[in-house]
Write a structure and sequence with these properties.
Elements: E1 10-16, E2 18-19, E3 31-32, H1 37-58, E4 62-70, H2 78-91, E5 93-104, H3 111-119, E6 124-130, H4 134-139, H5 146-158, E7 164-170, H6 177-189, E8 194-199, H7 207-210, H8 218-234, E9 237-241, E10 244-247, H9 253-259, E11 263-267, E12 272-277, E13 282-288, H10 292-298, E14 305-310, H11 316-324, E15 331-332, H12 334-340, H13 348-356, E16 360-362, E17 366-369, H14 371-375, H15 377-382
Parallel strand pairs: 1-4, 1-11, 2-3, 4-5, 5-6, 6-7, 7-8
Antiparallel strand pairs: 8-10, 9-10, 12-13, 13-14, 15-17, 16-17
Helix pairs in contact: 1-2, 6-8
Length: about 375
């Protein structure tokens, strides 16, 4: 039995699984489908049933953030989103200053929709830009071009969103260092509050996995990353996680909760959740049915949960480090006990090894990865297997 000395922060993730087109690099649970009025109404009703089914597991706990991801959530109408938001407020204890994020695709949006989302209480947008080079966007299978991407950012700001994240990838097929840095410079010029700048990786069960494109080699990737980080720092973006950069400290609170090994309830087709039961001294993971049509039939019942697993004492150190060591400043040492229910002493040998390898700064109050520790994170985490 795990021993917790305080409550665990709790977030809500809502998954909307449909896209106009499946991108060849995407391994998320997304499905090509035309979202009409009937589909979105049925799906929102299923989400509400799903939430009500899980309320006993989180009763009385406050929700610190909400993230509506996909798929392409911006395919859903303002009216459908409003119905969802009303249901969340009626059933959950939302933090007064809660961050509520919606993912949007620049090719599925117009100004009126952005204003509607803002009016119903969504206060953060995450736009999947991925590149501002039209040839690269075509190679990535995106349905927008660079002009539409820039227009979407302008529309979001005009609608009153002052907390906008832009996703950008590097290491794209055939991409030169100059092209990657040009992409980043153009994105910085749009002045978002937050930038998620990350390397394209080839994942199983994607089109790129079965038909792999030619990607830049490791040396070029490293040069792009080094030079790009200089550009971001000079522009006032503070790197606080491997792929996350914030202006004026506007960090993503939802993702921070993941990285600090907090709890999250996941509703929607294929959604994942992690819930700590302090009273019973256990942490469990849950996964919902991933096929939207099956999920619609099962939502609100046991059948919608396709897997439920208790995380063992042996697995917890790795899970904690896998998340927390992505943060540049690391975490307080006391967080290990608070989030795993285990004393830090059980991993002292591994922490000492990481320190000797130059991967970790270990003080009385903080555990912080070094630059080398983040570069060789997989080797670092191997100590906890």
């Amino acid at each position: 039995m795990l021993n917790f000395n305080e409550a665990i922060p709790l977030s809500l993730y809502v998954h909307l699984p449909w896209c106009v087109k499946k991108c060849p690099y995407c391994d998320f649970n997304s499905h090509e489908h035309r979202v009409d009025d009937d589909t979105e109404q049925q799906y929102v009703d299923a989400l509400i049933s799903d939430l009500e089914f899980d309320l006993p597991n989180i009763w009385g706990r406050q929700i610190s953030s909400v993230f509506i991801g996909g798929g392409t959530p911006s395919l859903f109408s303002v009216e459908a989103m409003d119905k969802l938001m009303v249901a969340l407020r009626a059933r959950l204890n939302l933090h007064p200053g809660i961050e509520i994020t919606l993912e949007a695709n620049p090719g599925t949006i117009e100004a009126e929709k952005f204003r509607g989302y803002r009016d119903i209480g969504i206060n953060r947008l995450s736009l999947g830009i991925q590149s501002l080079n039209d040839a690269q966007l075509k190679a990535l299978g995106r349905i927008h071009d660079s002009n539409e991407a820039k227009a979407a950012v302008a529309m979001a700001k005009d609608a009153g969103f002052d907390n906008v994240n832009l996703d950008l990838m590097f290491g794209l097929p055939g991409q030169t260092i100059e092209q990657a840095l040009s992409d980043l410079q153009q994105l910085i010029a749009l002045q978002p509050a937050h930038i998620s700048w990350y390397q394209l990786t080839i994942e199983p069960n994607t089109i790129f996995y079965s038909k792999p494109p030619t990607l830049p080699d490791d040396d070029r990737i490293w040069d792009i990353q080094q030079q790009g980080q200089v550009l971001l720092a000079e522009a006032g973006y503070q790197q606080y996680e491997i792929s996350a950069y914030a202006s004026h400290n506007q960090r993503c609170e939802h993702n921070l909760n993941y990285w600090e090994f907090g709890d999250y309830l996941g509703i929607g087709a294929g959604a994942h959740g992690k819930i700590t039961n302090v009273a019973e001294g256990k942490i469990e993971r849950f996964t919902r049915h991933r096929i939207p049509e099956r999920y619609l039939d099962m939502a609100g019942s046991d059948a919608a949960v396709t897997s439920q697993k208790r995380i063992s004492r042996q697995e917890l150190p790795l899970e904690f480090m896998m998340n927390s060591m992505r943060l540049n400043q690391g975490v307080p040492t006391k967080l290990f006990l608070q989030r795993t229910g285990l004393p830090l002493s059980i991993v002292e040998q591994q922490l000492s090894q990481a320190e000797q390898q130059g991967w970790l700064d270990w003080g009385l109050e903080r555990l912080s990865p070094t630059a080398s520790g983040q570069r060789y994170l997989n080797d670092f985490l191997g100590l906890f297997l």
